[in-house]
Specification:
With 209 residues, the protein is an alpha/beta fold. The protein has helices spanning 21-24, 30-43, 103-119, 136-146, 162-168, 184-189, 197-207; strands at 2-6, 12-18, 123-126, 153-157, 174-178, 192-196. This is Large ribosomal subunit protein uL4.
Length: 209
Amino acid sequence: MKVAVKDYKGKDTGRKAELSDDVFKIEPNEHAIYLDVKQYLAHQRQGTHKSKERAEIVGSTRKIKKQKGTGTARAGSIKSPIFKGGGRIFGPRPKDYTQKLNKNVKRLARRSALSLKSKENGIVVLEDFTFEQPRTKDFIEVLKALGLENKKSLFVLGDINNNVYLSSRNLAGSEVITNSELSTYKILNANSVVFLEGALEAIESNLKK
């Protein structure tokens, strides 16, 4: 499939980018998308949650009252979970939430997400550009020119470009990444995915493997 290449001012350059049908025009596999998004969200969890259990509470170990004759239940330690300040029963412990997913499934999921975005006309190809210095106003002008000012957008660069990245960092609705950071979740979370020409070849070669 062919997509018109625009410049950063939103004007048509007169050129067209050839997008591989094997990446941008396949039958989407919804289950692969589900698995990849599920893994991505799971990996955002730190898993550092922890509460102190009975054995970890610092407190006196003396028996707080006699065993019999009080008319109430026996109690051996102030650290018991039934008392205020005692340990927590079955409290959360540190846990690793990472999930394993086959590379081929991840590639299929990304191709499926790109194909869905392509069907929605959410793929934009932009010629490579940069800024002389980081400036949020300059990036906002690019968004206005592309009609993405009030929409979620994902810009995919071929290489690291600090001036473009820093210019977008304060904008909640836009994200700038390199081709190696592209994920199924980020593709689906954006209304439009803007590829710079320098990123296309690397993405297609990686997803065709």
